[in-house]
Design goal:
By secondary structure, the protein is mainly beta. It has two domains: 21-264, Sulfite Oxidase, Chain A, domain 2 (Alpha-Beta Complex); 274-385, Immunoglobulin-like (Sandwich). The protein has seven helices and 27 strands. It has helices at 4-10, 49-52, 95-98, 146-153, 185-189, 245-248, 259-264, and strands at 15-18, 21-25, 36-39, 44-46, 65-66, 81-85, 91-93, 104-111, 136-145, 161-166, 170-172, 175-177, 180-184, 198-203, 206-207, 217-219, 232-238, 274-279, 285-286, 289-298, 307-313, 321-322, 324-325, 335-343, 349-356, 379-382, 384-385. The strands form eight sheets. Strands 7-6-17-10-13 form a five-stranded mixed beta sheet. Strands 8, 9, 14, 15 and 16 form a five-stranded antiparallel beta sheet that branches. The protein has a four-stranded antiparallel beta sheet with strand order 18-20-24-23. Strand 6 (81-85) and strand 7 form a beta hairpin. The structure holds ligand MTE. The site of ligand MTE has 18 residues, from strand 5.
Length: 386
């Protein structure tokens, strides 16, 4: 799963170094900042679509940031991860203790449930960070299996969910709460598949940055980004799902913000198939003729699920052309693709839809929901052909 090329790409952000290559520094371009921020406090930013798909592994600088509060200041020396609840032996684990577990590296795509949210506003006003299509990134995550830590603590019979709680303080009502959530025990104890839950200390072979959860975060492959809790402070093994706001109430598909709707709706875990056209850009003026079109597609977040086909249409969905899938085809990871399209004068849009090996298709349309989650309808790129 991890090959030489992937690992090299992981280091190819602003500084590229490799034993056979002189260190190469690429200076940041002030006209093309690595992220466009929707807000700075808390930090919420996404890269331009063109820079998003420059490489299979997303450089840290171009990796979207989604935070509900300011980054907590954490002292790595005094930092401890607490493990408690339905365990034989509660634990308090330092970063040095974590090094005693087997080190695991895996590649996984992280995507926000609100990716492509702004498209919903065509139907009706939408709440939340107005994400475009770049609240997604693919990284090499290095750390230890969550299951190893839980097995050391000894999970008691009857445990069903594992709560993950951050050390941040999110303003809510009159006070603050930590960001948190939970995952089913089966996902937490998985150590066999590429979808195994990870406690990560590194991203792309570098220590996590403060924005991405230094010194320790969960990475839950196949699940919405919200389950990959950053600045992880506490793990609680329980017989029920977390009572944290971000699992019990937020991150649900509801039509209206009334308490009954929130309580009736189930928590979101796995992300659905999705995809986007990243090049050319929105409303680009293009000469008629052959044009290269590029983007990403994301298979549903389930084991052994890969992208099967990416189809593009320039005639409102009457006919479709297959895109080429780039080499890496991994479950829990996005799939980059490209296609040569013959654009005729008068073409108004390019439409994308993708299918994965579980048989899931991006739907033609997704109904508006109050928080604007799971926009995975056919991606429509308006173009002007001269
Ligand atoms: N963890 C904490 N503690 N606080 C947060 O605000 N945001 C979540 C998740 N983990 C969040 C968190 C959400 S909604 C997403 S999409 C991912 O982190 C984003 O991870 P990134 O900022 O590293 O891209």
């Amino acid at each position: 799963m991890l090959n030489r090329r992937t690992l090299l790409m992981a280091g190819s952000s602003l500084t590229i170094s490799h034993p056979f290559v002189k260190t190469l520094s690429v200076f940041a371009d002030p006209l093309n900042p690595p992220l466009k921020y929707h807000s700075h406090d808390p930090a919420n930013g996404e890269p331009s679509l063109a820079s998003l798909i420059r490489s299979y592994i997303t450089p840290i600088e171009n990796f979207f940031i989604r935070s509900h509060a300011r980054n907590p200041k954490i002292n790595a020396t005094s930092y401890r991860l607490r493990v408690e609840g339905m365990v034989e032996q509660p634990l308090s684990i330092s970063l040095a203790d974590l090094k005693k577990f087997s080190e695991i590296a895996l590649v996984a795509t992280l995507t926000c449930a609100g990716n492509r949210r702004s498209e919903f506003s065509k139907d009706k006003k939408i709440n939340g960070v107005p994400w475009g299509s770049a609240a997604i990134g693919n990284a090499v995550w290095r750390g230890v299996h969550l299951s190893d830590v839980l097995n050391l603590a000894g999970v008691k019979p009857g445990a069903r969910h594992v709560w993950l709680e951050g050390l941040d303080a999110v303003k809510r009502d009159a006070g603050t709460i930590p960001f948190g959530g939970s995952i089913p025990i089966e996902k937490a104890l998985d150590s066999r598949t590429t979808g195994a839950a990870l406690l990560a200390t590194q991203m792309n072979n570098k220590p996590l940055t403060p924005d991405h959860g230094f010194p320790l975060r969960a990475v839950i492959p196949g699940y919405i980004g919200a389950r990959s809790v950053k600045w992880l402070g506490k793990i609680v093994v329980s017989d029920r799902p977390s009572t944290n706001h971000y699992l019990a109430s937020a991150y649900k598909l509801v039509q209206a913000p009334d308490p009954l709707s929130w309580n009736e709706a189930g928590a979101l875990y796995r992300y659905p198939i999705n995809g986007a056209i990243c090049v050319p850009e929105n409303n680009a003026i293009i000469s008629a003729g052959k044009t290269r079109v590029r983007g990403y597609a994301l298979p549903s977040g389930r084991a052994d699920c890969k992208i099967k086909s990416v189809l593009l249409s320039t005639d409102s969905g009457r006919t479709w052309q297959q895109a080429n899938l780039e080499k890496q085809q991994n479950s829990f990871c996005w799939q980059l693709w490209d296609a040569q399209l013959n654009l005729l004068p008068g073409t108004k849009s390019i439409i994308l839809r993708a299918e994965d090996t579980s048989g899931a298709w991006m739907p033609q349309r997704v109904a508006w929901n109050y928080k604007g989650y799971f926009q995975n309808g056919w991606y429509r790129l308006p173009v002007n052909i001269r």
